[in-house]
Write a structure and sequence with these properties.
Blueprint: E1 2-7, E2 11-17, E3 24-31, E4 38-44, E5 47-53, H1 58-69, E6 85-90, E7 99-102, H2 105-114, H3 122-135, E8 141-145, H4 155-158, H5 164-170, H6 179-193, E9 201-207, E10 211-217, E11 220-224, H7 246-254, H8 259-268, H9 271-276, H10 282-290, H11 294-318, E12 323-327, H12 328-333, H13 335-342, H14 354-358, E13 375-378, H15 383-399, E14 410-412
Parallel strand pairs: 1-6, 6-8, 9-12, 12-13
Antiparallel strand pairs: 1-2, 2-3, 3-4, 4-5, 7-8, 7-14, 9-10, 10-11
Helix pairs in contact: 1-3, 6-15, 10-11, 11-13
């Protein structure tokens, strides 16, 4: 059985997959790690449990995960030895990792070096791998990078117009994120359309609390909205999206803010929350806008406008578009946001059917209007399954290795 782990700063999300990856046997979310009262949710099929208890650190969270998985009431596994491989999500692989890799000492050292690029994410991902190695000694671990899918972006799209020597020395370039989601969704979209992935040009809109728009041509990422850090691109729940960097210097001089304070504003106080002054949750923002809150309406308008503008730019970058794909929390669940984004995109061949859009979450992925030149789809993302697929492939390759055979145990993003 394959265990997938997504370890955050205050949460641990896990899924246990059947050996053939045909289904998820059990899953769980342990949240508010390190707070006075944490929460645990564990599901086996349609059965689930929710508890509140203190979870002092990640070691305690991993122990709780194993307690849940070995609970005889659910009859999932008897002992840790039932786990044959473990797959981990890592946010940032820098320019080092072009695909998923089996974990060894060199990989861990490189992961730590990449932590400077994602200081809010990579350290937590590293903790998850270390705890898994401690709890499951001898079991192979695989790490799957959000940035790996975007390594195919050409230099003209990932280079910033700063002094070249400076960018090369400090690893400054567009890296992109949510790549695991975009990779899974683009493959699923091709299957739904019954067309070869390498024949399609599509824009994948991963719209959640974090937002990525990705131009995928021939199955490869050729441009992506989030850049060097994780707050660029279009506005997100609490993150700003792109803005004129002159604003930073203005805030230092005129508002007396420190760079640390500005960084915190960009990551945690901007986006939907900053514009609305109310919430980072699109549902709450929409409800308030409907009640007459002008700032909430502005937040929605800015969010939709920036996404629509980026779709147009990516269609131009690819020389046309065959499919527009929505995924993640907002993309999958908000028919209203999808309709607003697609409005006025008829010049690209994008047109959606209102009824199909309204029932898309019920298993009707194609929301295109009759006769539309571009297919518009709603495709649920499944990053955990993508991680499990890579983990199974890499561990199978490792077990098949002949003695002395020199193999680089890495799996390319495509």
């Amino acid at each position: 059985m394959i265990l997938t782990i997504n370890c955050g700063s205050s949460s641990l999300k896990y899924q246990l997959h059947a050996p053939d990856l045909s289904h998820v046997i059990a899953s769980g979310l342990i949240a508010r790690i390190g707070e006075p009262e944490g929460t645990t949710d564990h599901w086996v099929g349609h059965r689930g449990e929710h508890h509140r208890r203190a979870i002092p650190d990640h070691r305690a969270a991993f122990a709780l995960m194993m307690e849940n998985l070995t609970n005889p009431e659910y009859d999932v596994i008897e002992c840790p030895g039932a786990i044959t491989a473990i797959g981990h999500r890592a946010v940032h692989g820098g320019a080092i990792f072009f695909g998923s890799v089996l974990v060894d000492d060199a990989v861990m050292a490189a992961l730590r070096a990449c932590a400077t690029f994602a200081p809010l994410h990579n350290p937590c991902n590293i903790i998850g791998i270390e705890e898994a190695q401690r709890m499951f000694p001898g079991v192979p671990n695989v790490v799957v990078f959000d940035t790996a899918f975007h390594q195919t972006i050409p230099e003209r799209a990932h280079a910033y117009a700063l002094p070249y020597e400076l960018t090369q020395k400090h690893g400054i370039r567009r890296y992109g994120f949510h790549g695991t989601s975009c990779r899974y969704v683009s493959r699923s979209a091709a299957e739904l359309l019954n067309r070869p992935l390498d024949s399609l040009s599509m824009v994948v809109c991963h719209l959640g609390n974090g937002v990525t728009l990705d131009a995928v041509k021939g199955g490869q990422s050729i441009d992506t909205s989030i850049g060097f850090g994780t707050f660029g691109g279009v506005p997100m729940g609490t993150r700003s999206g792109d803005f004129d960097p002159a604003i930073i210097f203005h805030l230092v001089r005129e508002a007396g803010l420190s760079l640390t304070e500005i960084e915190d504003i960009c990551y945690t106080k901007s986006g939907l929350l900053g514009l609305s002054g109310l919430s980072n949750d699109m549902r709450e923002v929409m409800a308030a806008a409907d009640a007459g809150n002008d700032r909430c309406q502005l937040a929605i308008d800015v969010f939709v406008y920036q996404i629509r503008k980026t779709i147009g730019a990516y269609a131009a970058a690819m020389g046309g578009i065959d499919a527009l794909v929505f995924t993640a929390g907002i993309g999958e669940n908000s028919a209203r946001v999808r309709a607003m984004i697609c409005e006025d995109l008829g010049f690209l061949g994008i047109s959606i059917d209102a009824r199909a859009n309204a029932i898309a979450r019920g298993g009707h992925p194609n929301i295109s209007a009759a006769g539309a030149r571009v297919a518009t789809l709603v495709v649920p993302t499944d990053e955990e399954r993508m991680i499990a697929i890579d983990t199974a492939a890499l561990t199978a390759a490792a077990s098949a290795r002949q003695p002395g055979q020199d193999l680089a145990f890495a799996l390319a993003a495509q």
